[in-house]
UniProtKB/TrEMBL annotation:
Positions bound to UDP-N-acetyl-alpha-D-muramoyl-L-alanyl-D-glutamate: S31, N150, T151, T152, S178, Q184, R186
GO MF, one example: ATP binding
Family to which this protein belongs: Belongs to the MurCDEF family. MurE subfamily.
Function: Catalyzes the addition of meso-diaminopimelic acid to the nucleotide precursor UDP-N-acetylmuramoyl-L-alanyl-D-glutamate (UMAG) in the biosynthesis of bacterial cell-wall peptidoglycan.
Species this chain originates from: Halobacillus mangrovi
Record protein name field: UDP-N-acetylmuramoyl-L-alanyl-D-glutamate--2,6-diaminopimelate ligase
Entry's localization field: Cytoplasm
InterPro entries the UniProt entry points to: Mur-like_cat_sf, Mur_ligase_C, Mur_ligase_C_dom_sf, Mur_ligase_cen, Mur_ligase_N, MurE/MurF_N, UDP-N-AcMur-Glu-dNH2Pim_ligase
The protein's Enzyme Commission number: 6.3.2.13
Amino acid sequence: MKMKKLLEHLPFYQVTQPISKLTVQGISMDSRSIGPGDLFVCIRGIKVDGHDYVQDAVNNGAVAVMCEERVDTSVPVILVNDTVRALAMVASTFYGHPSESLHVIGVTGTNGKTTITYLLDEIFCRHKKVTGLIGTIQICVAGKAYPVKNTTPDALSIQKYLSMMKKSRVDTAIMEVSSHALDQGRVYGCDFDIAIFTNLTRDHLDYHHDFDDYLRAKSLLFAQLGNGYNSGRDKYAIINMDSPVAKRFIRSTSQPLLTYGINHRADIMAKDCMLKETGTTFTLTTPESEVRIDSPLMGLFNVYNMLAAAGAALLSDIPLSVIQQAFNQSRGVRGRFEPVREGQDYGVVVDYAHTPDSLENVLKTIAELCTGQIHVVVGCGGDRDRSKRPLMAQVAIKWADHVIFTSDNPRTESPKQIFKDMTNHLQGTYKIIESREDAIESALKAAYQGDVVLIAGKGHETYQEINGVRHHFDDCEIARKILRSMKESP
Ligand SMILES: CC(=O)N[C@H]1[C@@H](OP(=O)(O)OP(=O)(O)OC[C@H]2O[C@@H](n3ccc(=O)[nH]c3=O)[C@H](O)[C@@H]2O)O[C@H](CO)[C@@H](O)[C@@H]1O[C@H](C)C(=O)N[C@@H](C)C(=O)N[C@H](CCC(=O)O)C(=O)O
Ligand SMILES: Nc1ncnc2c1ncn2[C@@H]1O[C@H](COP(=O)(O)OP(=O)(O)OP(=O)(O)O)[C@@H](O)[C@H]1O
Ligand SMILES: N[C@H](CCC[C@H](N)C(=O)O)C(=O)O
Ligand SMILES: [Mg+2]
């Protein structure tokens, strides 16, 4: 692509050498993966500053550099005020602004993003739409899956996958949008049609300065709604009115709203919610009509997820009857309240709860149904928010009768330090078993008929990350193996 064309949507930039004849083959923000003929964009990261890698990039074939400050180099330099935003814009231009021609739904909030995106996928597929999905578990383009490193990839990868979706005749792209992604401008080049806010509770305060900064990052999705090149299309913000910070999100957007909730008046509401051992029932009401939902998804938190998904589907002209069928026959999401059944006479649930709020929601749901005692196996991730550790431990003690603290991706931290953070000033009885497999075995062996064992924190993950190395580890697989061997030699 001609460099001039690549830069056409940038409001302001300066160049150090003429670029009218310059053509670029690709764009990269990493000097280590630059290809011959690429534009290198310098990003100031958390660990290092991309401006320090200009020479490496040029040595590896970069034909131009985009940066925020003048750098001494032989190739043309494009100076911009903010390389993060500029990168998102040139990435969108390079891939032909794919988000303009797709119906794009973005979901943000502390908990529920993955679940809502999967519910939306089930609804749209049932309505014979071709979907694309970007999120924690995987990226999916018209049914073909790709592995992921982050919940929301970097700006270049996002635009690349959106363009693959466009080529694969995807109608609707459904994307989880993390607070890191919003803060780092990864989705700045996406023209969202619908933005959903789930909830905001404590997480990621290692990265964001405080709760307000975390909120500010999340609200950027709503602030950017309607600012795309294709802003002629209707845009909507879908807001959970039961969240204590709903008003802050409403104030952050200029676009029309659709609200949902259970306790506060909203456009889409759930009434008469009832939890059963096999799922949840409720009446879903819209301004026009109502339907009874009888879904296999467990818990009130999943009712919120269904309301949010219903709102986005209705705004996308999907009939309520299709939404009802999708909810009633939902397959659920891997590692989200996933039962493990090997013929044992007690319940075993694997769930991705890794925040105080999600852990409490899941344990509360179990407490409503469990006729025996509750066992929980849980840990806290290393190199992540330390402030959530004592809170998660308190939640475990509050709701469970038997608590085992164990490892959950210690990463570069010492598991002992993580346990110390979790249990400092903690009142109550608990065990610490560092090996997650041993912890799961101990909990399963201690359970009796009618009890429930919750294995929390890793959900769909298939690894345990220790000192930068990912060892294969799958909670469901391990629980099954132990349950089978207990059956063989009771
Ligand atoms: C904390 C965080 O978000 N870090 C992200 C960030 O890394 P960073 O700022 O440390 O980057 P850096 O290493 O300082 O490098 C700065 C720049 O210099 C470049 N560089 C660096 C070295 C070199 O030799 N040459 C070079 O050009 C880098 O490519 C980069 O452009 O920018 C990188 C490039 O986009 C991301 O890969 C990286 O995500 C890391 C892997 C990560 O773990 N992120 C997690 C915390 C995350 O984003 N999580 C969210 C939320 C999860 C959820 O709760 O749902 C997610 O969306 O996944
Ligand atoms: N609406 C909700 N409110 C509170 N907790 C929820 C909600 N939905 C799901 N959860 C809990 O949070 C966990 C994570 O759910 P999910 O994966 O859908 O969220 P997420 O926002 O995608 O999380 P992540 O940021 O880690 O990707 C679930 O396993 C469940 O315990
Ligand atoms: N997206 C989240 C996932 C946390 C999952 C938990 N198993 C952990 O490793 O802390 C994060 O990277 O903070
Ligand atoms: Mg997710």
